[in-house]
Amino acid sequence: MKLRQQQFPTRAGIPALTGLRFLAAFYVVISHGLPWVRQHIKLSGLLIPLLGNGPLAVALFFLLSGFLLSFTYKDNLSSTGSFVTFWVARLARIYPVYLLSLLLALPFQLQLAFSARLAVLTTTQAWNPFHQEWAGAWNYPAWSLSVETFFYVLFPLLQRGIFRLSNKGLLILIAFTALACVVGHTAIQSIGERYDFPAGSRFIVLPLVRLPEFVLGMSLGNHFLRGTNFLNCIYLTYISATAALILLSFPIGSWVSLVVLPFAALIYGLASSRSTLSVFLSARIMVLLGGASYSVYLLQAPFRDWVRTIAVYALGNKAAALVTPLTPLLLVIFSIVVFKRFEEPLRKLIKGWWTPSRSSTQA
Fold it and tell me: Rounded distance, CA 348 to CA 363, Å?
């Protein structure tokens, strides 16, 4: 099986996709601030659905995760030891900032039940269909990390199976998972709306419901590695970016889940081409922001609470309202510091701790 030569030496793999992560994370942050924006600024036209659809960027995260993990690990998961090494690397990647976010949020979540707290600490809060209220407990953006944990558990086995598929089988899997992403999400939300069951949309956070997005990303990553492109990828990048903006900007109800398709195409196009958009997203500042995007996304809720609390204490209620528009910018600055001074050093420390231990065991 012929694989594309790896063009980028860094762990991030493809700089444009690192930059894209920041845009996705910041989109979610801005969307969560929509109530304040609508209270102080008169929005009209397509801006309301565009800003309101920010949470859909989580689908982009899941697609990116599957794509980049497949790009990074390829066929390098051939033993139990490699599985464990992968899981340790994932733990080192997500848990330090995850734990930091919980510590920052703790003063605002003192009444949380022990069962919910335990689920959050073990990153399993989104796994239980009978307690979906746990998904948003403690630090509500963290539900997506619970879903990612589920994906990480399955990834080594999934990657081994997908890597062995024929080109035809891989294309069939891409088509099937793309269809499952759209139909699954739309059906759940449509049924909830039709039968006046808004809570039905909460099942969107279940890992099994989101698994097609991750597998679609993995399938595209494996297809990319084989060196065959679907289309002229420069045009694919621009067309998919435009299609995503159109879908996010129009009030089309539950069918907005169609945006998963241009999201997937955009990832593939950015990985495959040197378009103007990919050059912009590969710029040093965008790669830095992309590295900090995990902190931007995960720390947004507790950081917002702390900024509001400190501003009210220092300035009073009326003056504190003036600080609110600055919160996203302050969050980005804080996240860069966390990324460079906390996240990266701890990741290296955890991985360094595991590697010597593993080597001595094998010896």
Answer: 23
